[in-house]
Design a protein that fits this description.
By secondary structure, the protein is an alpha+beta fold. The chain folds into two domains: 286 residues, Rossmann fold (3-Layer(aba) Sandwich), CATH 3.40.50; 117 residues, Immunoglobulin-like (Sandwich), CATH 2.60.40. It has a five-stranded mixed beta sheet with strand order 4-3-2-5-6, sandwiched between helices. Helix 5 links the parallel strand 5 and strand 6. 37% of the residues are buried.
Length: 452
């Protein structure tokens, strides 16, 4: 897992014992340099192309720079300071993916046919495992990035520079999440949460193939009549599906990656936000297509081609626990619930936490003259290597009368008081809050040393 880095939020502008996950951004174009799915041999060129693009940024253009290794990592959050982005990119050393770097088993002529067959099966089994692991981590990273950008208004653009795209949105439905056996990793809940997050935050994906121009690698067909075969057909199909389903564009088979990044950034300069309320009653996860037309011949439109009609998130405790556990191991903060945390030491060696939540992000349900909400709160202590030490979990069921609700809405925000005794060796505290009614999450990472 990547070590959390300063995310460029307002945390740095606050007093030492006050932290927030609010993003200082009015628009969002994010460059994601994917070291998890890109071969080491392809990374230096992609890195130089990103640096070339950053050197050409115009004054006032706000861009964020993220990286993906074992998990997502914020190299530099939104800024119009191109020199800060260049320094962050230059300092990043990239990553490696075992399934992309390891050679396939080359069976020697030993005569041990059964052994060679077993070694071949083992090799491909490892490839399958690593490929599944990369896909799993990629889906979680996309969910984390979308959740991080949730409070940024309007359309968000994710320029995803990668040598491989193991995630597909080309299906016609997203299955409902299922409970799995202990220790079994189920991919559908992750894909389901990712599709929710991408749709909720209006995130357009621009896949950019880091491999650049790819020459045909082999011929196939009957002897005497060879046919050119493109080895990347399925990869390109996934890139195009990601772009079409989210409203972006796919760039591949071109060495000028910097120009592709510039064209993607240009799309953010002129956008319109359209919306409507679906009247159908089909909320079983099926994909519903959207067609948009304009009365101007030759106009090229880029927009979300539809949406997955998913029902409300399950309220089962096991599902809520899965969602919070996934958010816990994402090293970038989710901003769906805007949080501010004040942390102060006590005389008994503990700490007092005042967690303030923006009431506009909470779903209040009216019951008579009162406004009710339920908030799941996790307080998780980690050591310097991010090993989990303890988790304190509870659900706050709140019922506010009208005067209290008005005061919370207009002046103070909704405040929760918590107490904690730091564990020996604890270096980080992760605060996770989830609105049980909507499923919206806010997370915040706090250094515990600031409270001592």
């Amino acid at each position: 897992m990547e070590t959390p880095q300063p995310s460029g939020t307002l945390q740095r502008k606050l007093p030492p014992n006050l932290f927030t996950n609010r993003l200082d951004a009015a628009s969002a174009t994010v460059i994601l340099f994917d070291g998890l799915n890109t071969r080491a041999i392809d990374q230096p060129y992609a890195r130089e192309q990103i640096l070339k693009f950053l050197r050409q940024l115009k004054p006032g253009e706000r861009v964020a720079l993220y990286a993906m290794g074992r998990g997502p990592r914020v190299l530099q959050d939104f800024t119009d300071d191109s020199s800060a982005l260049i320094r962050a990119m230059a300092a990043y050393k990239g990553g490696t993916a075992a399934s992309l770097e390891a050679p396939l088993h080359d069976p020697a002529t030993t005569g041990a046919e059964h052994f060679e067959a077993w070694m071949g099966e083992l090799t491909f089994g490892l490839y399958d495992f690593y490929a599944e692991d990369r896909a799993f981590r990629t889906v979680r990273a996309l969910t984390a990035i979308a959740s991080h950008l949730e409070q940024v208004p309007g359309r968000k653009n994710l320029i995803w520079v990668s040598g491989s795209f193991p995630v597909s949105l080309d299906g016609d439905s997203v299955a409902a999440p299922r409970r799995t056996k202990a220790g079994q990793r189920e991919s559908w809940p992750e894909v389901e949460r990712a599709s929710r997050a991408l749709g909720r935050v209006n995130l357009a994906i621009y896949p950019v193939d880091a491999r650049g121009l790819i020459a045909a690698q082999q011929y196939s067909g009957a002897p005497g009549s060879p046919q050119l075969r493109n080895p990347d057909t399925s990869e390109i199909a996934r890139m195009q599906a990601l772009a079409d389903r989210t409203g972006g564009r796919a760039y591949f088979n071109n060495n000028d990656l910097s120009a592709a990044l510039s064209r993607a950034l240009d799309d953010s300069r002129m956008t319109y936000v359209l919306g409507y309320y679906p009247l159908h009653a089909d909320w079983k996860g099926r994909f519903h297509r959207i067609d948009l037309r304009v009365n101007r011949p030759g106009t090229e439109l880029h927009y979300r081609r539809g949406y997955f009609a998913q029902p409300a998130e399950p309220s089962d405790s096991w599902y809520r626990e899965q969602v919070l556990n996934a958010a816990l191991w994402n090293p970038v903060d989710a901003t769906g619930l805007r949080l501010t945390v004040a942390i102060r030491p006590t005389f008994q060696g503990g700490v007092d936490l005042a967690i303030q939540i923006d009431p506009r992000d909470i779903t209040f349900q009216s019951k008579g003259e009162r406004r009710n909400c339920a908030l799941d709160v996790w307080l998780v202590q980690l050591d310097r290597q991010e090993k989990l030490l303890t988790t304190k979990a509870n659900t706050n069921n709140l019922s506010l009368d009208q005067p209290t609700f008005d005061r919370v809405s207009q002046v103070n925000g909704l405040a929760l008081a918590e107490q904690l005794v730091p564990e020996p060796g604890a270096a980080l505290l992760r605060v996770l809050v989830r609105d049980a009614a909507s499923g919206t999450i806010g997370t915040l990472t706090v250094p515990l040393r600031s409270a001592r």
